[in-house]
Amino acid sequence: MAFRVITMKSGAMMATARYLTRRNMTHGGSCCGNHHHHHPPFERKKQQSCSRSLSGFWRFNSTKASAVDVYSSDEDVTNTNHHQGLDFPGGHVSYTHSLNFISKSSTQNRVPCYRVLDDNGVVIRSSSGDLESQLQQQPLISQQTALKIYREMVRLQVMDTIFYEAQRQGRLSFYLTSTGEEAISVASAAALSSDDVVMPQYREPGVLLWRGFSLREFADQCFGNKDDYGKGRQMPIHYGSNKLNYFTVSSPLAFEEACMTQLLLCLNSYLQGDFHAGLNFAAVTESPVVFVCRNNGWAISTNVSEQFRSDGIVVKGQAYGIDSIRVDGNDALAVYNSIRAARQMAVNQGKPVLVEFLTYRVGHHSTSDDSTKYRPMDEIEHWKVTRNPVSRFRKWVEGNGWWNEDEESELRSATRKQLLQAIQAAERTEKPFLEEMFTDVYDETPSNLREQQEQLREIIKRHPKDYPSDIPV
Amino acid sequence: MFRILTQRVLGQSLLQQGIRPGAVASASRCFASAAKDLTVREALNSALNEEMSADPRVLLMGEEVGEYQGAYKITKGLLDKYGPDRVLDTPITEAGFTGIAVGAAYHGLRPVVEFMTFNFAMQAIDHIINSAAKTYYMSAGQISVPIVFRGPNGAAAGVGAQHSQCYASWYASCPGLKVLAPYSSEDARGLLKAAIRDPDPVVFLENELLYGEAFPVSAEVLDSNFALPIGKAKIEREGKDVTITAFSKMVGFALKAAEILDKEGISAEVINLRSIRPLDRAAINASVRKTNRLVTVEEGFPQHGVGAEICTSVVEESFGYLDAPVERIAGADVPMPYAANLERLALPQVEDIVRAAKRACYRSVPMAAAV
């Protein structure tokens, strides 16, 4: 059961080296990050009242408004203004006379959403007809990969249903489904390589399914038995696998780790302070990270309109200087294409990329939630039935002749059977040994914990009926 | 008869810990055979330098640690020597760079994160506790976090409420963290080296006012292999009438108090805790069993402080040995005021320690003719 820790030293150092090389280049104190000037920052130029210098910009050794007398003439300056500008730390900016505030985006000019398949699972042909956009729409995916994606999406659906039921029956303490968002985790994983470290939030077990985590391993973690890689220490759904490069799910967001290595980060908590520091750092250090946001409309009971007033998350990436894209998260092919492209950009150009998937959380937030209390039933039904990512992809796969009804029912019943077996086996498996409560707090178990462990053993021995019998002492 | 029984019963638990009363003396072995004077700043700088030289995975991160040579010049010269790959100047976001450092530690590097003061570390407390301290446990031993968080802690001089808090007891209550508080240059060198080499996350609480103070150190301390054990306190001064525990700057105050008490016929034993978590309960209890009186001293707020834990430990293990209630000296239970006169009143002074020791000894007048 030993797991290798993947060392990403070279990745970390690469990221930092890149950051610091660039930083050292600009260290001379120049006010202009992007230009290499030989003049010291604020050098007074000779007074030239009405004529413009050839280079087209002025430098001033004072930032007081009175030092500027470019506007002493009456001539119309709007046309020539964009050649005029100012150098401040951060670069050259042109100036404007008009006191206009950049308005926040309205419902009319939102960032458009990339999709490949329409709601009926048919590839949308670009209406413009030019070859380039036609090619961009072509699904770049093999039959084998497409079928694997589809199968894992189905298995995820079945797994969610069965585990959810198990929780309702009282066999599991907690569960959290990915219903309605199956395409995101599975198709993203398909577009990555198995070496890419994934830092999930908690609604991405599709990544693990794609990478080969078995149904039994999922069940072991949910039941917290002795085969659980987490030694029974975490709530259900907090999966982790060193071997599969999948960071253990932890409820608070640990963002910035992303910046030091190349990884895919799935997140939904874009209001945490970490999100902003993380994006900012990644941009400044030019880290090859793909940030993925599942914008599913809800943060437990808080609707997105109460979460932020920006145009979703995609514009926030732009605000941090990160190339960003908005994608239809219920379109498996769009997910696949966009993550593939994003990964390539990150790796080849050494920079972060942000992908916002628009989707809808069909299920309740978790088994501790009843979402009918804060949203209408017909809204849930609409997304569950008409906008279902699994059936949409199924239509495309079947349309290509790669799948049929028989295989569908066979897959579903086989998965269901495997799951029931996994649950039964996991339920029957012994819980972790008592000593695992006390290990791994530190590298070496300290004496006070060893003492407490002994004391606990004594107490259990003396009062066996007060303690569950299925915990091996 | 009862007392002998209790002694036997209480003695058991110390024995179970494998500590014989005499063994604690080894921790107090004095390394200062007076070779040369070293300031705490130089001690920290040399420790960082040597550990970075010995292990290429060690890196420094923090605000102003590189180009500026360190806000308090602790990291002076290190950027020049090790380059920008290993000494990183960070933007002003503790949450940001602490998160990055913890992530780097997850992947096998050994970062040393400098907080300009531990007050600012509160911006990163989620990463220190949730991402660093708990991860080894939560990942069932798969992800270790060999990280050191260091910086000035506690009051300085006239820096006000948001720059003066002592965080020793906050961090020391968290399983998964180790918390160290050096006093002398020997402590600073030995404990920082031990912290960097340790596989667990360590919070290393320095003190701004001690940076410039010089202490004599022996050749052994200056050796690059030198390190002090984590979890062992040091008996700075032996005594037999009252035990005074302290850490960081308060050790100096306790020693001064001991000098004053000595002139009045009270022999005080001063324990420099060095390690707040794990606390050297064996040393503290052994000392109290010898002196029968205890005064705990700390700069931080009194409620739920380090002294409270020490008092409980002694009550649990050595109750029968106490001849007087435990005296607890701590900072005033107010946010630190700025005005110099008020600040002085809000912090423990030498006189406070002397008075407490005398209360524990049931005396407030000099024992002139008693002997």
From TrEMBL, chain A:
<dbReference type="GO" id="GO:0009083">
    <property type="term" value="P:branched-chain amino acid catabolic process"/>
</dbReference>
<protein>
    <recommendedName>
        <fullName>Dehydrogenase E1 component domain-containing protein</fullName>
    </recommendedName>
</protein>
<dbReference type="InterPro" id="IPR050771">
    <property type="entry name" value="Alpha-ketoacid_DH_E1_comp"/>
</dbReference>
<dbReference type="InterPro" id="IPR001017">
    <property type="entry name" value="DH_E1"/>
</dbReference>
<dbReference type="Pfam" id="PF00676">
    <property type="entry name" value="E1_dh"/>
</dbReference>
<keyword id="KW-0560">Oxidoreductase</keyword>
<dbReference type="InterPro" id="IPR029061">
    <property type="entry name" value="THDP-binding"/>
</dbReference>
<feature type="domain" description="Dehydrogenase E1 component">
    <location>
        <begin position="272"/>
        <end position="432"/>
    </location>
</feature>
<feature type="domain" description="Dehydrogenase E1 component">
    <location>
        <begin position="151"/>
        <end position="256"/>
    </location>
</feature>
<dbReference type="GO" id="GO:0016624">
    <property type="term" value="F:oxidoreductase activity, acting on the aldehyde or oxo group of donors, disulfide as acceptor"/>
</dbReference>
UniProtKB/TrEMBL annotation, chain B:
<dbReference type="InterPro" id="IPR009014">
    <property type="entry name" value="Transketo_C/PFOR_II"/>
</dbReference>
<dbReference type="Pfam" id="PF02780">
    <property type="entry name" value="Transketolase_C"/>
</dbReference>
<keyword id="KW-0809">Transit peptide</keyword>
<protein>
    <recommendedName>
        <fullName>Pyruvate dehydrogenase E1 component subunit beta</fullName>
        <ecNumber>1.2.4.1</ecNumber>
    </recommendedName>
</protein>
<comment type="function">
    <text>The pyruvate dehydrogenase complex catalyzes the overall conversion of pyruvate to acetyl-CoA and CO(2). It contains multiple copies of three enzymatic components: pyruvate dehydrogenase (E1), dihydrolipoamide acetyltransferase (E2) and lipoamide dehydrogenase (E3).</text>
</comment>
<keyword id="KW-0496">Mitochondrion</keyword>
<comment type="subunit">
    <text>Tetramer of 2 alpha and 2 beta subunits.</text>
</comment>
<keyword id="KW-0670">Pyruvate</keyword>
<keyword id="KW-0560">Oxidoreductase</keyword>
<dbReference type="GO" id="GO:0046872">
    <property type="term" value="F:metal ion binding"/>
</dbReference>
<comment type="function">
    <text>The pyruvate dehydrogenase complex catalyzes the overall conversion of pyruvate to acetyl-CoA and CO2.</text>
</comment>
<keyword id="KW-0630">Potassium</keyword>
<dbReference type="InterPro" id="IPR033248">
    <property type="entry name" value="Transketolase_C"/>
</dbReference>
<dbReference type="InterPro" id="IPR029061">
    <property type="entry name" value="THDP-binding"/>
</dbReference>
<dbReference type="InterPro" id="IPR027110">
    <property type="entry name" value="PDHB_mito-type"/>
</dbReference>
<feature type="domain" description="Transketolase-like pyrimidine-binding">
    <location>
        <begin position="38"/>
        <end position="213"/>
    </location>
</feature>
<keyword id="KW-0786">Thiamine pyrophosphate</keyword>
<dbReference type="GO" id="GO:0004739">
    <property type="term" value="F:pyruvate dehydrogenase (acetyl-transferring) activity"/>
</dbReference>
<dbReference type="GO" id="GO:0005759">
    <property type="term" value="C:mitochondrial matrix"/>
</dbReference>
<dbReference type="Pfam" id="PF02779">
    <property type="entry name" value="Transket_pyr"/>
</dbReference>
<dbReference type="InterPro" id="IPR005475">
    <property type="entry name" value="Transketolase-like_Pyr-bd"/>
</dbReference>
<dbReference type="GO" id="GO:0006086">
    <property type="term" value="P:pyruvate decarboxylation to acetyl-CoA"/>
</dbReference>
